[in-house]
Design brief:
single chain; about 130 residues; alpha+beta; Herpes Virus-1; two-stranded antiparallel ribbon; 3 helices; Znf_RING
Length: about 130
């Protein structure tokens, strides 16, 4: 199969969006904004069909990522995620992914409100890999 992003052969990740025929390499998809869910059926989605945050949170003033302290986008998007519980904790995708890899499943939680269940469920859905250990 040809990758729909780089056009090279060997692509094996298929978008699970309705009637979507996009196939891509995992690294190409990651660079383009595709999401792979690391639980259940291990579904992958292209940039058009990826899950989005349903949290209604918009900043009034510029907010910084709780992890790196650099500015984040003004609303939730692919690169900017929000805690679904407190709606006050904003993160860059790369920062919260790094935090998840360091914390692992039993310690990964919102750094602000300390919610674990809802926070982990949302991060899993949005393609954040949370290892068991």
């Amino acid at each position: 199969q040809r990758c729909c992003i780089c056009r090279l052969r060997g692509a094996s990740v298929t978008c699970r969006g309705r009637r979507c025929s996009r196939i891509f390499h995992f690294p190409c998809g990651s660079e383009r904004g595709c999401i792979s869910q690391f639980f259940g059926e291990f579904k992958s989605f292209c940039w058009k069909h990826r899950p989005v945050q349903r949290v209604r949170a918009v900043q009034e003033d510029q907010t910084n990522c709780l992890i790196c302290q650099e500015a984040v986008a003004r609303w939730p998007c692919y690169n900017t995620l929000v805690c679904p519980t407190c709606k006050s904790a904003w993160f860059h995708r790369r920062c919260i992914q790094s935090q998840a890899l360091r914390s692992a499943l039993h310690h990964f939680r919102c750094p602000l409100c300390q919610d674990m269940a809802t926070f982990q469920e949302e991060m899993f859905r949005l393609g954040i890999k949370i290892p068991d250990r």
